[in-house]
Amino acid sequence: MSAEITHKQYHEYLLTRSRLGHLYRSYVLYPKVVRYLEGRTLDVGCGIGDLCLFRENTVGCDVNPYNVNHCKERGVKEAYLIEDGFPFPEKAFDSVLLDNVLEHLEEPSIVLDEVRRVLKDGGRFVVGVPGEKGYASDPDHKVFYDKEGLRALMKSYGFREETTFCTPVDLKFLSKKLRQYCLYGVYVKDDSI
Q1: Tally of CB atoms within 10 A around 6
Q2: pLDDT digit string (tens) for 88-131?
Q3: What was the pLDDT predicted at 4?
Q4: What is the CA radius of gyration of the chain?
Q5: Cα-based distances in Å from 61 to 64, 115, 156, 167
Q6: CA distance 34 to 56
Q7: What is the DSSP letter of 97?
Q8: Quick one: average pLDDT of 13-22?
Q9: Rounded to the nearest 10 degrees, what angle do helices 7-14 and 65-73 cross at?
Q10: Pairwise CA distance, residues 14 & 36, whole Å
Q11: How confident is the model over 53-63, as a mean pLDDT?
Q12: Of 50, 66, 60, 45, nearest to 140 (Cα)?
């Protein structure tokens, strides 16, 4: 997190979501994303816990203590603070979601190494990153990923691409026009890479 934005400020920013944004996530985004999540799922950077409440068997973790406390207040049974690595044993999850988190990290190795550690062999890793307009809308964004850049990064950490999709629809010109436009990659933990 940048020095200009505190955990409290970022948490308060997340709470400013609109009703339309909530409806979009509940009826468009999450139904698309959860079809790729299996079994016990870890939502890394769970924010205010929307996905944890939307999908059963989903555990949330976040670096922001305000978000974790808010998740618990909303009834998320398993929401954990990330301090020195993920607070979970090896191979504890069937799938992991990293939704609009990667672009905040100048150096993603710590998070990606932890994802590999807690994900079961052959488990799915779903990664969402913003399009051009969404990337430009947040001063805390540090690295922009297009499909090729995301694919190369995931391969370098031993994740084989299964598929990609964009939300709300896969029309590339929307990347520059719509803040909600995101690219999602679905990857499989593959030790043969």
Answers
A1: 13
A2: 999 999 999 999 999 999 999 999 999 999 999 999 999 999 99
A3: 62
A4: 16
A5: 9, 12, 24, 24
A6: 10
A7: E
A8: 85
A9: 40
A10: 25
A11: 97
A12: 45
Contact of 118 with 91, CB cutoff 8 Å: yes
Single-letter amino acid, residue 28: V
The span from the CA of 188 to the CA of 36, in Å, is 11
Residue ranges of alpha helices (H) inside 55-143 are 65-73, 109-118, 132-136
Q: Which two tokens stand for residue 143?
A: 């690295």
Element (H or E) spanning 90, and its range?
none
The domains of the chain, with CATH numbers, are: 7-189 (3.40.50.150)
Distance CA 5, CA 110 (A): 21
Encode pLDDT of 160-177 as tens digits.
999 999 999 888 889 999
Helices (H), 25-81: 30-34, 50-54, 65-73
